[in-house]
């Protein structure tokens, strides 16, 4: 049986096994996809263990491992090099090949909003492994600018170095002063896994905004509840997850592009 894993911590919220179970069935593959709770200090040992199991064809990474894993990757594709974040690994011939499909998943998930987003301003909370592909995708779909707010301001400054002048780092205490002119607000942090936590205040939001939370479980975080109450458009991260799962299956079982849709 082919084996695949999700590494990260915490993992109890993940829907990935259910999605992959359906995809593997569609492809007539006898394969398993399991959760493997892994903290940063456990990652090296986990990777050594995975390499020893010849049945493992690949694995995914979620927080906090998307940047940490890079030092263990033998070959990075160009996108993951540029973004500095890996969420998908192909194990082949005892080598690890790193990819970023979060970018594709997010970009495809915002297609219904492209006419509203293009030429307008975005605000992203976060600057880690989940935020980077989101910020690159926003730049690539021609937003006017992207405010990046993070607890550690220096990390937001590094995002500007990576993606150019469209990125405007802001401190968390400055968000209130810039958010009124923003079209889409995106939470790319883990704040909200606990349903009562949020990065925003209701008085900051108006009905013309789009609120997007990468978290999909809970289905509606406090961040999204605030948006819904105001009358803004809201979206969680399930579609992003699903679209990147499709890309991952293509990477692991190359040649099945036409069958997976």
Automatic annotation (TrEMBL):
Domain (Shikimate dehydrogenase substrate binding N-terminal) ranges: 6-89
Binding of NADP(+), residues: 78, 126-130, 150-155, 214, 237
Gene3D superfamilies named among the record's database cross-references: Leucine Dehydrogenase, chain A, domain 1, NAD(P)-binding Rossmann-like Domain
Top EC category: oxidoreductase
Pfam families found in the cross-reference section: Shikimate_DH (PF01488), Shikimate_dh_N (PF08501)
Catalytic residue positions: 66
Pathway: Metabolic intermediate biosynthesis; chorismate biosynthesis; chorismate from D-erythrose 4-phosphate and phosphoenolpyruvate: step 4/7
Alphabetical UniProt keywords: Amino-acid biosynthesis, Aromatic amino acid biosynthesis, NADP, Oxidoreductase
Catalytic activity: shikimate + NADP(+) = 3-dehydroshikimate + NADPH + H(+)
One Gene Ontology cellular component annotation held by this UniProt entry: cytosol
Record: residues binding shikimate: 14-16, 62, 87, 102, 216, 244
NADP is among the record's keywords: yes
Quinate/shikimate 5-dehydrogenase/glutamyl-tRNA reductase domain residues: 114-190
A biological process term (GO) from this entry: shikimate metabolic process
Organism superkingdom: Bacteria
GO molecular function: NADP binding; shikimate 3-dehydrogenase (NADP+) activity
EC number: 1.1.1.25
Keyword Amino-acid biosynthesis: yes
Record InterPro entries: Aminoacid_DH-like_N_sf, NAD(P)-bd_dom_sf, Shikimate_DH-bd_N, Shikimate_DH_fam, Shikm_DH/Glu-tRNA_Rdtase
PANTHER family the record matches: BIFUNCTIONAL 3-DEHYDROQUINATE DEHYDRATASE_SHIKIMATE DEHYDROGENASE, CHLOROPLASTIC, SHIKIMATE DEHYDROGENASE
Function: Involved in the biosynthesis of the chorismate, which leads to the biosynthesis of aromatic amino acids. Catalyzes the reversible NADPH linked reduction of 3-dehydroshikimate (DHSA) to yield shikimate (SA).
Similarity comment: family membership: Belongs to the shikimate dehydrogenase family.
Self-association and partners: Homodimer.
Record protein name field: Shikimate dehydrogenase (NADP(+))
Organism (species): Caldisericum exile
């Amino acid at each position: 049986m082919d084996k695949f894993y999700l590494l990260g911590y915490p993992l109890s919220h993940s829907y990935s096994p259910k999605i992959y179970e359906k995809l593997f069935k569609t492809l007539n593959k006898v394969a398993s996809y399991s959760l493997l709770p892994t903290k940063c200090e456990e990652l090296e040992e986990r990777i050594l263990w995975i390499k020893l199991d010849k049945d493992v064809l690949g694995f995914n990474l979620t927080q906090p491992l998307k940047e940490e894993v890079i030092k263990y990757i033998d070959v990075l594709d160009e996108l993951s090099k540029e973004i500095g974040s890996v969420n998908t690994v192909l194990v082949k011939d005892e080598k690890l090949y790193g990819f970023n499909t979060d970018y594709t998943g997010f970009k495809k998930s915002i297609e219904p909003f492209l006419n509203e987003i293009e030429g307008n301003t975005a605000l992203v909370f976060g600057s880690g492994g989940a935020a980077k592909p989101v910020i690159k995708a926003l730049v690539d779909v021609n937003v006017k600018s992207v405010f990046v707010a993070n607890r550690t301001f220096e990390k937001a400054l590094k995002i500007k170095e990576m993606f150019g002048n469209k990125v405007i780092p802001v401190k968390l205490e400055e968000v209130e002063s810039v958010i009124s002119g923003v079209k889409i607000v995106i939470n790319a942090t883990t704040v909200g896994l606990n349903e009562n936590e949020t990065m925003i205040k209701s008085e900051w939001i108006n009905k013309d905004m789009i609120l997007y939370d990468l978290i999909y479980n809970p289905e509606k975080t406090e961040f999204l509840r605030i948006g819904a109450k105001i009358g803004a458009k809201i979206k969680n991260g399930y579609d992003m997850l699903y679209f990147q799962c499709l890309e991952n299956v293509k990477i692991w079982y190359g040649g099945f592009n036409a069958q997976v849709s």
